[in-house]
Task: inverse folding
């Protein structure tokens, strides 16, 4: 049995997307940074395979070409692609999530077929055959399960709180290398919302480590201690080398507790290019106050949608449409 007996050449080539998407999902979890160039060859491959499939279907019969190629391709390109762009535009997806879904809409407009021994995969297919839509619905179902997994993990550790479905506790010294959003407020485990990438940008801009800020929090609140020539904030990535040359100014600040701009939060956001991931001065101040006084804080991991999307693709290739299989 040759590979072409197990699947058509286009369907075999589509499997190249699986390890690439898996690598991207792992990298997104670890760094929250995916190179945009990753999606270009996959998009080009998808476009070539789309034309190839169309020619193969046209060569079989006009009925096959119309109902098994044109209709699912129209749904994939006419619904999934605009949906991915809309979700990115409104902030529901990250840029990498949206690009990945766009690529999958090109790569998997119709249902691929694979013969594994006596098995024909996928097992459960949607009537309209728009495979990228099946991947999307599978991914949404996987994303809905993740909070339950998080809650079970917290419950097993004896952590029963209203945040157990959306977050996990982290020691303060792990925050600089953690991704997600701060959920803890200074006095309780609710509130905040500070993006930790924005926190890293702020610390690098000031030339401080989180340990230095905690040690001299009374001084760091004073905007007079802001550096005359701030450092580049970078983009908040964990791997960027931190700057620690701003601690000297903390020793010379006047002792006061009331400032127009505590922590220099507004000055930081006014000085940098962009919006620091939508962070407001109030969010930054509350987050800094929390990290200055608490030894453990709750963090929402904010798992990238690339992870459910990858799992949704694998499930779709092996089983098919989970929602359809459940209902039927």
Result:
């Amino acid at each position: 049995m040759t590979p072409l007996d197990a699947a058509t050449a286009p369907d075999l080539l589509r499997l190249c997307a699986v390890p690439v998407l898996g690598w991207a999902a792992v990298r997104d979890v670890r760094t929250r940074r995916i190179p945009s160039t990753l999606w270009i060859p996959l998009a080009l491959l998808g476009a070539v395979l789309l034309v190839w499939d169309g020619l193969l279907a046209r060569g079989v019969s006009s009925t096959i070409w119309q109902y098994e190629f044109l209709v699912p391709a129209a749904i994939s390109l006419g619904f999934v692609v605009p949906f991915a762009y809309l979700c990115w535009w409104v902030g529901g997806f990250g840029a990498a999530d949206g690009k990945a879904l766009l690529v999958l809409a090109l790569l998997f407009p119709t249902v691929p077929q694979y013969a594994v021994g006596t098995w024909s995969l996928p097992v459960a297919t949607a009537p309209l055959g728009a495979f990228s839509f099946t991947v999307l619905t599978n991914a949404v179902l996987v994303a809905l399960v993740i909070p339950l997994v998080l809650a079970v993990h917290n419950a097993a550790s004896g952590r029963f709180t209203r945040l157990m479905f959306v977050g996990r506790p982290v020691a303060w010294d792990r925050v600089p290398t953690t991704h997600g959003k701060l959920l803890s407020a200074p006095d309780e485990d609710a509130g905040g919302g500070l993006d930790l990438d924005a926190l890293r940008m702020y610390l690098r801009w000031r030339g401080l480590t989180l340990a230095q800020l905690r040690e001299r929090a009374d001084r760091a609140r004073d905007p007079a201690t802001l550096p005359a020539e701030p450092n580049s904030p970078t983009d908040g990535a964990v791997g960027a080398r931190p700057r620690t040359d701003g601690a000297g100014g903390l020793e010379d600040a006047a002792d006061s507790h009331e400032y127009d701009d505590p922590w220099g939060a507004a000055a930081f956001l006014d000085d940098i290019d962009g919006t620091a991931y939508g962070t407001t001065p109030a969010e930054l101040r509350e987050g800094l106050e929390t990290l200055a006084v608490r030894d453990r804080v709750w963090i929402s991991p904010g798992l990238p949608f690339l992870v459910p999307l990858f799992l949704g693709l694998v499930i779709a290739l092996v089983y098919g449409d989970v929602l359809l299989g459940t209902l039927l």
Observations:
- The beta strands are 114-116, 119-121, 168-171, 181-182, 296-300.
- The chain has two domains: 3-147+305-327, 168-300.
- The chain has a mean pLDDT of 87.
- The chain is about 55% helix and 5% strand.
